[in-house]
Amino acid sequence: MNAPEQKLSAPGAKTFDRAAESLGNIVLLEHVNLKQDDQRIAALFYVGGLGLTRDPYLHVIDVNMWFNCGRQQFHMPTGKPQRLRGTVGMVQPDLDALVKRLESVTAKLEGTEFAFARRDGRVEATCPWGNKFRIHGPEPRFGRMKLGIPYVELNVPPGTAAGIVRFYERIMRAPARIERGAGGEAAHVRVGPMQEVVYREADGPLADYDGHHIAIYIADFAGPHAELVRRGLVFEESDQWQYRFKELVDPDSGKPLFTLEHEVRSLTHPLHGRPLVNRNPAQTQPAYTAGQDAFY
User: Fold this and answer.
1) Tens digit of pLDDT for each residue in 25-47?
2) Going by C-beta distance under 8 Å and a sequence separation of 6 or more, which residues neighbour residue 14?
3) 62 CB contacts (<8 Å, ≥6 apart)?
4) pLDDT digits (tens, 9 = 90+) for 178-235
5) Structure pTM?
6) Contacts of 145 (CB under 8 A, 6+ apart)
7) What distance in Å separates the CA atoms of residue 201 and residue 262, rounded to the nearest whole number?
């Protein structure tokens, strides 16, 4: 006797766009790595100005600094300063409070490249070494994110966006798309819940690459590795849970398109899912409120 036919949903039941919740192979953009040469200056900007939290457990001496930003981090080893060839997008819960904090460190950062301005409903800030930040308040396009890094946007040569989309789709197995705007084409790559790396075509010469990098976690760790190795693109076999590549190439022609080091981690990496301490930057000693130390 045949089993009765099973219907997927009852008449009148709600329907959902299930594809909208599919991340693809890259499940988290975890950190942006930028070297700095003065920990005091870095703390003034990232802690005093941006209101972030220095990781209390790892890299707490002079060789490195980790700043927590929601589920993401900035890693800042001590060395020759690096400059991202683009902009880091950030979400903060209170832009008014952010502006006040940035004002409070302005005099102490005089003589550096630090600057900030509020325009078009967001805050644009430049770190003491010239890195650009575009800071938004919470918005529907960022989902439930109240503090974090929703995107990194990079300037790339004209004519490279389509090849970059092919690279991520075929080699990294991540959803990617082309968006066309007044300034040209941009490759949007999904790298986590409400997270993207955006490669925006730009006219004019690009600065030389200085070694800054991003870190990502991926579900299929071995598949992209095999394809990258076949193409000679893996330059560091870090350990059992991590490898690195930095050249983005067109899968069709092998032509180099852009250089950005990727620290690729497996979901079995010891640091995956590590809880990050985020403080409430509104807490001060003169106006202390019991039970409000942590960011919620």
Assistant:
1) 999 999 999 999 999 999 999 99
2) none
3) 39, 78
4) 999 877 899 999 999 999 999 999 998 999 999 999 999 999 999 999 999 999 999 9
5) 0.93
6) 70, 91, 138, 194
7) 20
Q: Which residues contact 60 (CB under 8 A, 6 or more apart)?
A: 54
What does the alpha-carbon distance between residue 68 and residue 226 come to, in Å, rounded to a whole number?
A: 32
Tokens of 117: 């301005």
Q: Are 42 and 76 a contacting pair, CB within 8 Å?
A: yes
Q: How far apart are CA 149 and CA 34, in angstroms?
A: 15
- Pick one of 3.30.70.360, 3.10.180.10, 3.40.630.30, 3.30.43.10 as the CATH number of 30-266: 3.10.180.10
Domain ranges in the chain? 30-266
* β-bridge pairing 148-156 and 195-201: parallel
What 3-state class would DSSP assign to 141?
Answer: helix
